[in-house]
Amino acid sequence: MKTAVTGANGQLGRLIIQKLKEKTSTQSLVALVRTPEKAKNLGVEVRAFDYDQPETLAASLNGVDVLLLISGSEIGKRKQQHENVINAAKKAGVKKIVYTSVLHADKSSLGLAPEHLATEQALKASGITYTILRNGWYTENYAASIPGSVQAGAFVGSTKDGKISAAARKDYADAAVVVLTTSGHDNKVYELAGDTNFTLTNLAAEVSKQTGKNIPYNNLPEAEYAEVLKKIGLPEPMAHAYASMDVSASKNDLFDDSKQLSGLIGRSTTPLAEVVKETLAKI
Q1: Each residue of 25-49: pLDDT tens digit?
Q2: CB-CB contact of 56 with 95 (8 Å)
Q3: Is residue 30 included in any domain, yes or no?
Q4: What's this model's pTM, rounded to 2 decimal places?
């Protein structure tokens, strides 16, 4: 049985390929990437796969039984891109698609939720067996701001006291591998999130504790936070999108206490303190 992973050269994709190689033969794995030259070191078969070139996708899925569709990164283009992949998978005879969606896609106020929900609907309508992994936020999304916040002496954002049930990227990778390599997941939707939640005030306190410095969290209005993001180099549309996501987090859209992720991977999710420690070690 052949398993293919889209976006295999991304941070999540590379982790999943690495973990799959520990569970199954490399001959049964296919890495689907936009630029094959960049994926030569993955140690598995690599095929060109560009979501924006629908006419080429079915051929790249030839012989594939199970497809992990890692959602694209281009907000606003993903609905069409994902539909291109689903249509190609149907044409190529793919038997099952596992899709990385977003936490509570059917009720979230996150600006990116509608694209994920539309993909879920297209997947269900395709007739192909599916598993939907509604991934919560990566703890690394917040850890990325640690170096700048330590330098600036404060964290900023628009999350207020919103509870964030984030988990480490490796936790979500493990969940994908479990679903791809074990049975009992057909036509299921999993809400995946960390075992424990935190606020950005908690994150700031953990960083303060580990650095021995007083680094508070300062909550800003959405527009003000977007301006801060623009000043540090984010393009205007992305700055506004990130600020909007923070506002959704303030409404607890990133909170989930069902512990389906730890149930799926058979261990506790990675604690916030561990990710903070790993991040600070790299500064």
Answers
A1: 999 999 999 999 999 999 999 999 9
A2: no
A3: yes
A4: 0.96
Whether the per-residue pLDDT at 75 is higher than 90: the answer is no
Asked whether residue 85 falls in the same domain as residue 157, the answer is: no
Query: Strand, helix or coil at 114?
Result: helix
Please provide the DSSP assignment of 7-52 as one string: TTTSHHHHHHHHHHHHHS-GGGEEEEES-GGGGGGGSSEEEE--TT
| CA gap 239, 258 in Å, rounded | 31
Q: Residue for token digits 């249509």?
A: 87
Asked if the structure places residue 45 within a domain, the reply is yes
**pLDDT the model gives residue 74:** 87
- Note whether 150 and 208 are same-domain residues: yes
pLDDT band at 251 (very low <50, low <70, confident <90, very high): very high
Residue 226 within any structural domain of the chain: yes
Least Cα distance to 145 among 204, 231, 197 occurs for 204
Say what the pLDDT of residue 76 is.
Answer: 86
Looking at the fold, whether 79 and 38 belong to one and the same domain comes out as: yes
Instruction: Give the C-alpha separation, 138 to 12, whole Å.
Output: 10
Residue 181 domain flag: no
Nearest to 61 by CA among 126, 137, 100, 3: 3
Domain with 142 in it:
137-167+194-256+270-283
7 and 17 inside one domain: yes
For the chain, the domain total comes to 2
Which H helix or E strand runs over 73? none
Residues 228, 226: Cα–Cα separation, whole Å: 5
| Residues 156 and 74 grouped into a single domain | no
Q: What CATH number is attached to the domain comprising 81?
A: 3.40.50.720
Mean pLDDT of the 204-227 span: 97
